[in-house]
């Protein structure tokens, strides 16, 4: 993140924030629209919605939270977090074998 | 004694201490919400077929709340940028907007909660279900003594004696509100004497696993919104005195509270499709 304090230096940051804001609004509309598309399986709807949500999350974390230009220390903390988060979700997915086949349709 | 590294970055981390602190806190928050999302997945895939609700939440209202939260994120980052550009007046304006948007979000969420707490599912003695929003209860309504009556705006679901496909089709009128069966249902005033009621309850967290995880996830998120709004409210009001004596430290406080606020927005970005759309 830039430490510059002048208005001129910040103008390109602000333009970027506004672009991200517009992208997030468009992303929200696309998410709602895509949820009405009757894909062959509900799993496709879930995949599409989570993909759009991940893109929106990247924009918020990357630009509003300045994660795309942070210090190594922050990346180190986030790397640990990502590892354990992915591990948690991985364990959840492995648990699918515990459920009778006919329940995993919704 | 002064707290070290409130403005100047430490040499080893390259960051002022509060920034390391908030990111460590956010890391723990990721795991907290991660555990609840994981619970959601397990409850959903473990639900009996036909019993996981779809369309129980109002999509336009949820979309409006998403827009409110996204807008509050841009006003938050603009408030911080205004501090960086030495424009205290603009900071005040942007964060006033943030606080108002936070209150709007909580207001809309409260409206949605109220809708669930006035929505009744009534198990009738004949094995059928009456489902709808409360219109009125008679003054003498007492379920244990079987006196009085309740009026709801909704419909009856005839499940008594039905099995297999027939039961699944009927259940869609309650559980899958996007289905043609549910769309075809006519909602009208239904008067039910207490003597015909076996049991009844609202769509609160106790209703089923969906409402339980819905209220847990959105309730915890709403607490974060309220907590964040209180911190931002303090920094906007009495806490803003620091701007006069130590503007850089104040700007860092705005950045830290902003990072938390963006995280709250980020969580909602996943909550909205998961709970409202899928």
Protein traits:
heterodimer, A: 106 residues, mainly alpha, 71% helix, flat, B: 278 residues, alpha+beta, Four Helix Bundle (Hemerythrin (Met), subunit A), SH3 type barrels, 2 domains, five-stranded antiparallel sheet, 8 helices, 5 strands, 59% helix, elongated
How would you summarize the topology of this molecule?
The complex is a heterodimer of chains A (106) and B (278).
Chain A: H1 7-35, H2 42-64, H3 72-94
Chain B: H1 17-46, H2 59-84, H3 88-117, E1 119-124, E2 129-137, E3 149-157, H4 164-175, H5 180-183, E4 188-193, E5 197-202, H6 209-236, H7 242-245, H8 247-277
Antiparallel strand pairs in B: 1-2, 1-5, 2-3, 3-4
Helix pairs in contact in B: 1-6, 1-8, 2-3, 2-8, 3-6, 6-8
Could you characterize what this model shows?
Chain A is mainly α and 106 residues long. Chain A has 2 domains: 1-70; 71-106. Chain A has helices at residues 7-35, 42-64, 72-94. The longest helix of chain A has 29 residues, at 7-35. Chain A is flat, with a radius of gyration of 19 Å. The termini of chain A are far apart. In chain A, 16% of the residues are buried. With 278 residues, chain B is of the alpha+beta class. Chain B has 2 domains: 37-116 and 208-277, Cytochrome c oxidase, subunit III, four-helix bundle (Four Helix Bundle (Hemerythrin (Met), subunit A), Up-down Bundle), CATH 1.20.120; 118-202, SH3 type barrels, CATH 2.30.30. Chain B is built from 8 helices and 5 strands. A 5-stranded antiparallel β-sheet of chain B has the order 4-3-2-1-5. In chain B, β1 (119-124) and β2 (129-137) form a beta hairpin. In chain B, α2 packs antiparallel against α8 (247-277) and α6 (209-236) packs antiparallel against α8 (247-277). Chain B is elongated, with a radius of gyration of 24 Å. The termini of chain B are far apart. The interface between A and B is large, with 51 and 53 residues.
